[in-house]
Amino acid sequence: MTTSDLEQFAAWLEELIRRRGYDIDSPRGGGKSRLADEAGVHRAAITRLLQRQSMPDLETTRRLAHVLQVPVREMLIRSGRLTEEDLPLPSLPDSARPGGASRHLTLEEAAAGLGVPPEQREMFMRVAGQFLPETSVRPGERTPLASD
């Protein structure tokens, strides 16, 4: 990790934290404390990161990703700790590739491929399932992609 990695990551994370409604700019805004409480981490870890003093450890990164609703994969890549090659997304089934075979993507595969957190996948599948043709079956069974 370089100083540049820390600077870029902290800048990206600051903006994300603000977009999620945490007031980290005013001294009495309480945003850092609220974020730390909701993530279950020490406030000092948030402060050190925002002051560009240190990168959070893996557990803190995981907890922040959950609270900020961003995949851990994205946090690790943006932090410079790992690359996209280190953390490849699951391969698309043949049906999602041009000229692919007839295998269809399941709602579970779509959720995983899109980085939907496990605790939100059931809701994702219920909502996404509403857009599938009537002939579609339960989540987990093969359903056609819009491009099929």
From TrEMBL:
PROSITE patterns: HTH_CROC1
HTH cro/C1-type domain residues: 35-75
Superkingdom, natural source: Bacteria
CDD domains the record matches: HTH_XRE
SUPFAM superfamilies, A to Z: lambda repressor-like DNA-binding domains
Pfam entry (one): HTH_3
Name by which UniProt lists this protein: Helix-turn-helix domain-containing protein
